[in-house]
Amino acid sequence: MDKIEILGLIAAALTTSSFVPQVYKAWKQKSTKDISLTMYLFFFTGIVLWLIYGIAIDSLSMIIANAITIVLSFFIIAAKLKYK
Amino acid sequence: MDKIEILGLIAAALTTSSFVPQVYKAWKQKSTKDISLTMYLFFFTGIVLWLIYGIAIDSLSMIIANAITIVLSFFIIAAKLKYK
């Protein structure tokens, strides 16, 4: 695997894992007032398209990163709807 | 431009623009308590790497999308630091 692909995997790991602390904070504090629902609805839709894009270009790292991000952003949307 | 690239551009437009409502909400309400700083620091770092990756593979859409996302996530981090 060349250096550029390794860079892509590290970038994917960082941007994907970054949602974990937000999911944790939202569900632990049961407070999501400051989180923008509009952002996460747009973001979620975009990530679904990135997943389809990743499948279309047969990029395993994009498929994995976006599949995980879809699940994580779903939990943030769920927390936002539950704890207005 | 083929259908897959158009899909990528739409995905990039959605995920990039999704941060605008969060920037607006944070600065308008002057309240960021529910926003995870850890998330945005990880995310910001990841997006910088995605920008370098986009430059390395000469992908204009990745360069534009990630450059804009860097600016938008910077404003969210700034709001988080200013309005603990």
Write structural notes for this entry.
2 copies of one chain form a homodimer. Chain A has 84 residues and is mainly alpha-helical. Chain A has 4 helices and no strands. Chain A has one domain: Up-down Bundle (Monooxygenase). Chain A has helices at 3-17, 19-29, 37-56, 60-82. In chain A, helix 1 (3-17) runs parallel beside helix 4 (60-82) and helix 2 packs parallel to helix 4 (60-82). The interface between A and B is large, with 41 and 41 residues.
State the distance separating the first and last CA atoms of chain A: 45 Å
Largest interface: A-B, 41 and 41 residues
- Poorly predicted residue ranges of chain A: none
Count every helix of chain A, treating DSSP H or I runs of 4 or more residues as helices: 4
**Residues in helix, % of chain A:** over 70%
CATH structural class of chain A: Mainly Alpha
CATH topology of chain A: Monooxygenase
Number of domains of chain A: 1
Cα Rg of chain A: 14 Å
Indicate the proportion of strand residues of chain A. under 5%
Oligomer: homodimer
Dominant shape of chain A:
elongated
Which second-level CATH architecture of chain A applies?
A: Up-down Bundle
Largest sheet of chain A: none
Helix/strand structural class of chain A: mainly alpha
Order of helices and strands of chain A: HHHH
Query: What is the residue-averaged pLDDT of chain A?
Result: 93
Structure summary, number of beta strands of chain A: 0
Membrane topology (chains A, B): Multi-pass membrane protein
Keywords (chains A, B): Membrane, Transmembrane, Transmembrane helix
Transmembrane segments (chains A, B): 6-27, 39-57, 63-81
Protein name (chains A, B): SemiSWEET transporter
